Amino acid sequence: MPIPRDAASVVLEGFELRVLHIPLVSPFTTSFGTERVREVIIVRALTADGDGWGEIVTQEAPLYSSEYTHGAWDVALRWLCPALLELDALAPAQVAETLRPFVGHRMAKAGLELAVLDAALRAEDRPLSAHLGAVVDRVPSGVSVGIQESAESLVDAVGSYLEDGYERIKIKIKPGRDIADTAAVRDAFGTIPLQVDANSAYTLADADTLAELDRFDLLLIEQPLQEDDLVDHAVLAERLSTPICLDESITSAKAAADALALGATSVINVKAGRVGGYLEAVRIHDLCRAAGVPVWCGGMLETGIGRAANAALAALPGFTLPGDISASGRFYARDIVTEPAVLEDGHVRVPTGPGLGVEIDPVALEEFTVARELLHR
Ligand code: OSB
Ligand code: MG
Q: Which ligand 1 atom is nearest residue 222's CA?
């Protein structure tokens, strides 16, 4: 049965971009840094048939990848939005095509595409989940746990997420905070579904240390080496029994195909922002599913906008591992949607309303806004 993935065109009238600063409930530490406030860009596409919402998932500093909020802000206002606003009518699938001449800036492109997609689907009264090809109405929820002050505090943090009902735990690791932290969590909680994420913190010279992780029977190790290290990942994969799952390296469907062909990865973390949009994310899902490669939905501390879209994506049949799609409350005391995602029996519901299926809370949106620009045709 072919899945319809086309949506009708919209007549774009403008874009409103906002930078938001949303406090996190607790600091989030990875191998590349600590975040206390989520700085993110929210996009509103203004169309003749109504608004659509998107989220540009860059962070304040270019540490996870080369993109960062003020770079995305600049490229979106200076180049990407004007290119889209030049067209008289625009189908969501044309967004990536129109923006292709501009090299990189995938998170910025993804946020704009999502806003157009949301506007088009709301106008057609169709949910994003159905549009992408979702087959379930709720998805298992995993949680990404940052590096804590000590192994003891990590065990406490993991314990409270398990009490909440999370179905899979991911802990962040870095050199010096890897084997002992992982051992502490395994010792405390036994055979829970557990994986680790290094965010590119190692080199091939650390292969012996990384091989020590094999004894913990992890679901996978996420992005041990640098974004560009596809060949080194393939070499490392030969050394480890733990499956390697690439995150940062997978910047497109082509990159995914190349990494699989090289044997650099055996599982893929799909993040729409990192690959330039939800439509490219679906293409990665499709190629992995055809190749029998498991995928799961990664996260970028999304607000209720991106979180709704991630739940829709993760409802596709190839998403056979729990994603980093936690309840909104894992990161935020207050979200910018009226019904933030909650955990129900270890799952998050896939919204069923038109488009993203969530409504913006205008008061919260305004409260967190620190910059705003409006571009009109
Ligand atoms: O590597 O998966 C990552 C957050 C920011 C940048 C990179 C990553 C992460 C996470 C959090 O692990 C995932 C989430 O949104 O829950
Ligand atoms: Mg990761």
A: 1
310 CB near ligand 1 (under 6 Å): no
Dump pLDDT digits (tens) for 112-169.
999 999 999 999 999 999 999 999 999 999 999 999 999 999 999 999 999 999 999 9
| Distance in Å, CA 297 to ligand 1 centroid | 10
**For the domain 130-349, what is the CATH superfamily, name and number?**
Enolase-like C-terminal domain (3.20.20.120)
Q: What span, in angstroms and rounded, lies between the C-alpha atoms of 103 and 82?
A: 16
Mutate to test the pocket of ligand 1, among 64, 300, 348 (most ligand atoms within 8 A of CB): 300
Q: Are strands 194-197 and 168-172 parallel, antiparallel or unpaired?
A: parallel
Task: Name the CATH superfamily, with its identifier, for domain 12-125+361-376.
Answer: Enolase-like, N-terminal domain (3.30.390.10)
Q: In sequence order, which residues have a C-beta less than 8 Å from that of residue 181 and are 6 or more positions away?
A: 147, 151, 154, 171, 173
Q: For this structure, is 172 an active site residue?
A: yes
